[in-house]
Amino acid sequence: QVRLVESGGGLAQAGESLRLSCKVSGSTFRISSLAWYRQAPGKQRELVACIRSIDTTNYADSVKGRFTISRDNAKNTVYLQMGSLKPEDTAVYYCNAVDIELTYYWGQGTQVTVSS
Description:
Layout: E1 2-7, E2 10-13, E3 18-26, E4 31-39, E5 46-52, E6 57-59, E7 67-72, E8 77-82, E9 91-99, E10 104-106, E11 110-115
Parallel strand pairs: 2-11
Antiparallel strand pairs: 1-3, 3-8, 4-5, 4-9, 5-6, 7-8, 9-10, 9-11
């Protein structure tokens, strides 16, 4: 089992920055990738950024150049640094882990609200 706990959401104005953190615990050795997803009201959950075990990263086109995913293995934490925030970034952000058996784990979500 893997447990994910997000923190760092909140309210920001357009153009500002926020950093989300996700503490990972449990069977961390089984994890093959970590990611951040988001879900805006009335929309489907979408992948924002992903980091794999060899530190390759992928980003949604909408956040490329503005968001950075990283991790600190010593702290078992994955981060999402969000810059140049836009109102359309408003959503609940979820931390995600996928293990070697392709089981998905989710955090409880953290709200990010960007005002114009």
